[in-house]
Write a structure and sequence with these properties.
The protein has one domain. The protein is built from 6 helices and no strands. Helix 2 packs antiparallel against helix 3, helix 3 packs antiparallel against helix 5 and helix 5 packs antiparallel against helix 6. The longest helix has 29 residues.
Length: 138
């Protein structure tokens, strides 16, 4: 339980991740009545970006980068070259591509598809990082 409600950053990250997953689930379940997919994609991007920043703080990514640069501090939870970090970069690339492509796209159907691409990137990051955190703390 300490993994998810250990301190303020961890608690806020957990709550916001649950809200994000609920938003994605709600959007998928009600896809037939949603008319503005671009707005949903923007909200998903902003919420995902905030959660990503909080999770990076929670997991000590700044310490990992500082350790790789000059070794002046201990590294964070994951090393700089690790499977969670690499898969996180793949998820981030999916999110960025979808964010750039959504306003360019003219039809709502294509914006819906880009919403799913962005959702997939976010879910990939969440699942891999959370499983890695659990395995790291066993």
């Amino acid at each position: 339980m300490k993994l998810y409600i250990g301190n303020t950053i961890t608690t806020v990250t957990t709550i916001m991740t649950i809200i994000l997953l609920g938003f994605v689930g709600y959007s998928i379940c009600n896809r037939n009545i949603i008319t503005f997919w671009g707005r949903r994609t923007l909200l998903l991007f902003v919420l995902g970006l905030v959660i990503c920043c909080l999770a990076a703080t929670r997991d000590g990514l700044d310490q990992t980068i500082q350790n790789a640069i000059d070794g002046s501090c201990t590294q964070g939870l994951f090393s700089l070259v690790s499977i969670p970090t690499m898969i996180g970069c793949i998820g981030a690339a999916m999110i960025i591509v979808a964010f750039i492509a959504t306003p360019i796209t003219k039809s709502q159907h294509m914006r819906e598809i880009w919403f799913y691409v962005m959702s997939s990137g976010i879910l990939l990051k969440v699942v891999v990082i959370e499983i890695s955190r659990i395995l790291h703390n066993l």
